[in-house]
Design a protein that fits this description.
With 136 residues, the chain is mainly α.
Length: 136
């Protein structure tokens, strides 16, 4: 019997399987940290909006609008499935703007320790991510 066609089929199957696994991005610890920082920034902007401004207006507007604006910017430019594709530096600018706004919000609320710790963790995570994306 001739097993050559069977062996070729198995090889093609293994190649396709290897290609699929090579295309899937690997999620590392810094990726998980970055996701948590992103969520923390959005929640922080909401807290800042509700607490820093008089309720009901403009507190409700800022408390809902600030995180929505940050989420929109993130989805448009930074997310892995971003609508508008920009280079690494454009993504970094949007990320810096969102994280800085969250840190400034905590500072304005009289929580400088939260602001500084968040800023340092976000900066280190961003630097590590930038090095990874730039191939260094």
């Amino acid at each position: 019997m001739n097993d050559a066609p069977r062996e070729q089929h198995d090889q093609r199957h293994e190649q396709r399987h290897a290609q699929r696994h090579a295309q899937q991005p690997k999620v590392g610890p810094n990726d998980v940290l970055r996701f948590l920082l992103e969520l923390f920034a959005f929640v922080s902007l909401g807290i800042w909006g509700f607490l820093a401004f008089p309720l009901p207006w403009p507190g409700v507007l800022v408390g809902i609008g600030a995180p929505l604006l940050a989420i929109l910017a993130w989805a448009l430019f930074v997310s892995p499935k971003a609508v508008l594709h920009v280079d690494v530096f454009g993504k970094a600018l949007v990320e810096i703007a969102v994280f800085s706004a969250a840190a400034i919000g905590w500072w304005m609320l009289g929580q400088p320790v939260v602001a500084v710790v968040f800023s340092v963790v976000a900066a280190v995570s961003g630097i590590l991510n930038g090095r990874k994306q730039l191939g260094g």
